Amino acid sequence: MPPAEHFAAPPNWEWWILGYFFFGGLSGGSYAIGTLMRLVGAPSDARLSRAAFIVSFLALIPCPIFLVLDLGQPLRFLNMLVDASNGGLAFKPWSPMSVGAWALLFFGLFSFVSFLGALAEMGTVRALAPIARFFRGPLETVWNIVGTGLGFFICGYTGVLLAVSNQPVWSDGWPLGGMFLASALSGSAALLLLVARSRRDVESGSAMRLEAADRNFVIIEAILIAIFLATVALAGTINKVLGVWIVLWIVVILGLLAPFVLTRGDLARRMPVAGPAIALLGVLALRALVIFSAQT
Amino acid sequence: MGFFTDTSICIGCKACEVACKEWNQLEGNKPELLLDSFDNTGQLDAQNWRHVEFIEQIPDNNGVVMTPTPIAGGQAWLMMSDVCKHCQNASCLEVCPTNAIVRTEFDSVLIQQDVCNGCRDCIAACPYGVIGFNEKTGTAHKCTLCYDRLQNGMQPACAKACPTESIKFGYLDDLQAAADKRVAALQTAGYKKAQLYGRDAAVYGGLNAFFLLMDKPEVYKLPNAQNAVLPSRNNLAGYAGGFVTAVVGLVAGVLAFRQQRMNEKS
Question: Which residue blocks in B107-171 are alpha helix, DSSP H?
Answer without folding.
Answer: 121-125, 147-151, 157-161
